Amino acid sequence: MKIVKEAEVRKQEILVAARELFIKKGYEQTSINDILKIVGIAKGTFYYYFTSKREVLEAIILDIVEEGARKAEKILKDKSIPLVNRIMMAIMAQAPEFEGSDKIKEELHKVENAKLERLYLRAMLKRMTPVLQEPVLEGIDRDIFHMEYPTECIESILLLGHMMFDCDAFQWKMEDYPRKIQAFLCNAERMLGTKEGELKEFIQMFGQLE
Amino acid sequence: MKIVKEAEVRKQEILVAARELFIKKGYEQTSINDILKIVGIAKGTFYYYFTSKREVLEAIILDIVEEGARKAEKILKDKSIPLVNRIMMAIMAQAPEFEGSDKIKEELHKVENAKLERLYLRAMLKRMTPVLQEPVLEGIDRDIFHMEYPTECIESILLLGHMMFDCDAFQWKMEDYPRKIQAFLCNAERMLGTKEGELKEFIQMFGQLE
Fold first, then answer.
1. What distance in Å separates residue B111's CA from the closest CA in chain A?
2. In this structure, is the dihedral angle defined by the CA atoms of residues B169, A198, A136 and B200, taken in order, positive or negative?
3. Looking at the UniProt feature table, which residue ranges are given for the DNA-binding region (chains A, B) (predicted)?
4. CATH assignment of B64-207?
5. What is the pLDDT of residue B167?
6. Is the separation of the CB atoms in A64 and A117 below 8 Å?
7. Domain with CATH 1.10.10.60 in chain A
8. Which site in A184, B11, B143, B155 is 20 to 30 Å from A164, CA atoms measured?
9. How far is C-alpha A210 from the geometric centre of its chain's CA atoms?
10. In CATH, what number does B1-51 get?
11. Rg (CA), chain A
12. How many CA atoms lie within 13 A of A33 on its CB side?
């Protein structure tokens, strides 16, 4: 039991060191040796946990998904926020925007790394759909939401949010974003079947960015 | 003028031959020499038009987007179909499903080729959004659709349709599809702001697949 725990700790040490290096030096510029030096392990130990540097990056991406999901779960527990706002805030919060994530995000979004982006998207959809299931079903129970396909509604909102705002599928200009965010929230509202304008205050927050 | 036309014809010959080879033999198994033999040109001539086999595949993908857009435009002209059905049929028809496309689609969807998929998605969104603009604005004029953000509504429907049904973002099982298609049409209806059930008959067609 202790050995299992230590292995998990060691693996985490590698991931933490690698993430820091990828952010500071860039993924391409980081070698496995750089990682070994910081963690203070031999090459053999590294290869016990990972087969390549790429696999480390993939594990980091899954960690990012997990961190995002936890942020979302935390927001969803805050009953002081109206349900529909809470859901939209949770969706926005789970996107990787934390400090230093820019470099990893950049890595994720390089066209050459479209494979990583796909990995992120699939992992995120799988992890986040059940997270949102509960509050959406609560909203249906409380007569705030009205829909026949709750799972598919969540899937659609998550997918649109990710493709539009995290992954630049449309290559919009900076100045387009306030309108695009408003349109996204308006479409989310319609899919959830809220009263028209349920998210109005929330939507206006983004209008002020214009 | 004549020379320009001939260059365009030659380029098309290369694309037609390459597409046939990619479908028959697979992309990896096709060499530039295979293409040269069929078109009957020298290597230098090939490199006048393309820098690599990959570039040929990229050009084929842009052709596929163009073919899809033309199919959609044709359907949209058929005024005998109710407007909202016509729009959804156009969206479905533009997805690459033509004969022999399976091999190219397979190539497009291999995780290693996520870059190509991104290329397809961006080109498709750019080409298809204006195609659908006209019928959607017509629907607003005729009081069939009600929305504040027509462009963003079209973008969202195109994006969802592609990610869900052409690119397997969710890795759904075969038996999930009838429900997923129905949910997609229902969400599209809501974003377009039609009368609830405007697409009912259309949606039921997919129910019968269950």
1. 6
2. negative
3. 31-50
4. 1.10.357
5. 77
6. no
7. 1-51
8. B143
9. 25
10. 1.10.10.60
11. 20
12. 1
- Interface ipTM > 0.90: no
Q: Does A172 touch chain B (CB under 8 A)?
A: no
Distance CA B73, CA B132 (A): 8
Of B180, B185, B189, residue with least CA distance to B210: B180
Please tell me the distance from the alpha carbon of residue A58 to that of residue A117, in angstroms, as a whole number.
10
Of the two residues B28 and A157, the one the predictor is more confident about is: A157
The residue type of A111 is V
Name residues whose C-beta falls within 8 Å of residue B62's C-beta, 6 or more positions apart in sequence. Answer: B119, B123
Q: Which residue, among B115, B119, B147, B156, would best test binding to A if mutated, counting the most A CBs under 10 Å from its CB?
A: B156
CATH architecture observed for domain A67-207: Orthogonal Bundle (1.10)
Asked whether the CA dihedral B190, B194, B195, B196 is positive or negative, the reply is negative
Answer yes or no: are the C-beta atoms of B152 and B91 closer than 8 Å: no
Q: Shortest CB distance from B171 goes to which of A122, A159, A160?
A: A122
Cβ atoms of A132 and A83 within 8 Å: the answer is no
**Segment-wise mean pLDDT, segments of 10 residues, chain B, 210 residues:** 73 93 85 95 94 92 91 93 90 71 64 72 92 94 94 95 85 90 92 82 63
**Å between B112 CA and nearest CA of chain A:** 6
The boundaries of every CATH 1.10.357.10 domain in chain A are 67-207
Between chain A and chain B, the number of residue pairs with CB atoms below 8 A apart is: 87
Reply yes or no on whether the pLDDT at A57 is more than 80.
Answer: yes
B57 touches B21 (CB < 8 A): no
B28: amino acid identity, one letter: E
* Residue B38: per-residue pLDDT: 94
Taking contacts as CB-CB distances below 8 angstroms, the residues of chain B near A179 are: 149, 152
Indicate left, alpha or beta for A107 from its phi (over 0: left) and psi (-120 to 50: alpha): alpha
Judge: B122–A171 Cβ closer than 8 Å, yes or no.
yes
